[in-house]
Amino acid sequence: xxxxxxxxxxxxxxxxxxxxxxxxxxxxxxxxxxxxxxxxxxxxxxxxxxxxxxxxxxxxxxxxxxxxxxxxxxxxxxxxxxxxxxxxxxxxxxxxxxxxxxxxxxxxxxxxxxxxxxxxxxxxxxxxxxxxxxxxxxxxxxxxxxxxxxxxxxxxxxxxxxxxxxxxxxxxxxxxxxxxxxxxxxxxxxxxxxxxxxxxxxxxxxxxxxxxxxxxxxxxxxxxxxxxxxxxxxxxxxxxx
Length: 241
Prior knowledge:
By secondary structure, the chain is of the alpha+beta class.
């Protein structure tokens, strides 16, 4: 079954390569797209709303989650998860064959997640040609993840991290700060199928064939994501270890 799953869509940092230098003539870097999205929000949103979200980010950062989560050099945590097609994927079976890129996204309701998903889709061939499998994980219910994929025009299947069980073992789950929790009280149960007001960091890991984490992108700011070009370089490095 694993052989049929050559493209898996489930559901920091190393020293950053300047993102703007990664752009092609046709496609802006992910960081530029994210910055433009954030600038648009800042331009149209009321000042108090901007301040509320900014406080939420700082509260998450102040919790120390970026330092307490799984880091480069740590053993990766294994897990078996399913996508909306019912296929089971066991991470260790994948990384025994070569590097694995593991990425969490928060939900299809998040415009920054959708930008990242499309960017990773566009980079999928390069990731695979570098020798890795891409695994995208999400707390979204499978039917919601399918809707997210269809709306974003992506072909890979997101795996359901039910109740964020695996994300919690990686240490990337946080309770929504009081400042922003009310904004999500009706949204998250609808998408995730539970009443927990929790989200994962938008974390990306590269795991080598020994089950070691060789790259980790961890940022409390949901507007920041791993640049695909950096992930590809991390994959290439992992294949040489």
